[in-house]
Amino acid sequence: MKKLLKGGKVYTGGAFVRADVLVEDGVVAGVGDLSVSQAETVDVSGKHLLPGLVDVHVHFREPGFSYKETIATGSSAAARGGYTTVCTMPNLNPAPDTAEHLGVQLEMIRQGAVVKVVPYGTITMRQNGGGELSDMAAMRDEVVGFSDDGRGVQEDAVMEAAMREAARLGKPIVAHCEVNSLLHGGYIHDGEYARLHGHRGICSESEWKQVERDIELVRRTGCRYHVCHVSTRESVELVRRAKAEGLPVSCETAPHYLVLTDMDLREEGRFKMNPPIRSAEDRAALVRGIQDGTIEVVATDHAPHSEAEKAKGLAGSAFGIVGLETAFPVLYTRLVLEDVLSLERLVELMSVGPGRLFGLGGTIAPGAPADIAVFDLGARYRIESADFLSKGHATPFEGWEVQGRNVMTLVDGREVYRDASLGGCGIVGA
Ligand SMILES: NC(=O)N[C@@H](CC(=O)O)C(=O)O
Ligand SMILES: [Zn+2]
Ligand SMILES: [Zn+2]
């Protein structure tokens, strides 16, 4: 069946142009002034057509923790947010550390996924940070890269060996950077808010020291290397210098680090994640990083937990917040509408950049897979976590007034989400 998306503004070749998009057999068959007979025509005039958003850092909790999120609920949240491809972190049970364990997850993805879900394999066996590396070679063809997200790889020799193997296999190491010996039981940023309210802080050094170590290991091994959820100004500067040196280094940050500072915290679990939201200076450095291209990716680090796990305040709650259903509107409202960033740059950070870096799409062009998100950038509404399709509801953006809503998501040309404004009722087939 052909589908004609008529009259929208289409992101193509780095800019928005007024054009129709024809979708046929799962791919974009044409972009331009089209009139096609025997196609289902959807009037998208006034809407923006973006290459489907790509999130290289999510937690879907299966296998092992279905009570927090399932592949079905997580990928439904993704579809609603405008994402067509997401990459799942491997802090699971069993963790994907061998072909067999990865196979368990792949089967669940085949059964439950609403959008494209591509897993990471672990770096270490059982993701325990020990000396035994995962069976990277056996997992190579099915994973986007290797990560021990949730913890840093503490031993230099283990990370070096992992980088050598990943380089041999032509896959990236995607690193959660955290030096355990510098944590001292901290759970929010070691800054003004922690001092004022008597909380134990996580120092910036615990992140950037490991970024610094890893960049030195990249110099030695030539491994493609990507830093997860960068939160400190020092990490941004280290990545900036590594890139200037020509090293194969990239990094991501997440929406909450770009629009909040530690002084926005409240005594609630929905403000607790790892790494923590840092100071105003850190936030400013991250914004400069997305403006000058040092940071090429915005990922959500969508990390759902149960209501009970997030109900224990800052000290007692689990680390992690959800993000897939709020990322685009929050950043569109706070960065694009406030002239910090162009809409085109935001599309690069949320789709084109991660798509290019990880080989996961991020274009609307003839012949490309028809992974498309249709946004109504004029829609204004209030974020209410009770409406989320995710099982996780902990968000620091609760109650925010935002603008910009995804109204339709196509994955390989298949409509997976359509909202009421386009005559749909959410996830298609749900
Ligand atoms: N970001 C978080 O606060 N939590 C993540 C782990 C991680 O991303 O490091 C989780 O798995 O819950
Ligand atoms: Zn992490
Ligand atoms: Zn994570």
Describe the structure.
- The chain is α/β, with parallel strands linked by helices.
- It has helices at residues 71-81, 99-112, 136-139, 156-169, 192-197, 205-221, 233-244, 255-259, 280-292, 313-316, 327-336, 343-358, and strands spanning 2-12, 15-24, 27-32, 39-43, 48-51, 53-58, 83-88, 116-119, 173-175, 188-189, 201-202, 225-227, 249-253, 297-298, 372-382, 401-411, 414-418, 426-427.
- Helix content is 29%, strand content 23%.
- The radius of gyration is 21 Å and the shape is globular.
- The chain has 2 domains: 2-49 and 368-380 and 400-427, Urease, subunit C, domain 1, CATH 2.30.40.10; 53-358, Alpha-Beta Barrel (TIM Barrel).
- It contains 12 helices and 18 strands.
- β1 and β2 (15-24) form a beta hairpin.
- The structure holds N-carbamoyl-L-aspartate and zinc ion (2 copies).
- One zinc ion binds at residues 149-150, 176, 228-229.
Q: Share of helix among residues? A: 25-40%
Strand content bin: 15-25%
Low-confidence runs of at least 5 consecutive residues: none
Total count of strands? 18
Order of secondary-structure elements: EEEEEEHEHEHHEEHEHEHEHHEHHHEEEE
Radius of gyration: 21 Å
- State the CATH architecture of the largest domain: Alpha-Beta Barrel
* Main sheet makeup: 9 strands, mixed
Distance between the termini: 21 Å
Number of helices: 12
| Average pLDDT rating | 98
Secondary-structure-based class equals alpha/beta
Question: How many structural domains does the protein architecture include?
Answer: 2
CATH class of the largest domain: Alpha Beta
Shape summary: globular
CATH superfamily of the largest domain: Metal-dependent hydrolases
Binding site for Zn(2+) 2: 149, 176, 229
Binding site for substrate: 59-61, 91, 274, 305, 319-320
Organism: Alistipes inops
Protein name: Dihydroorotase
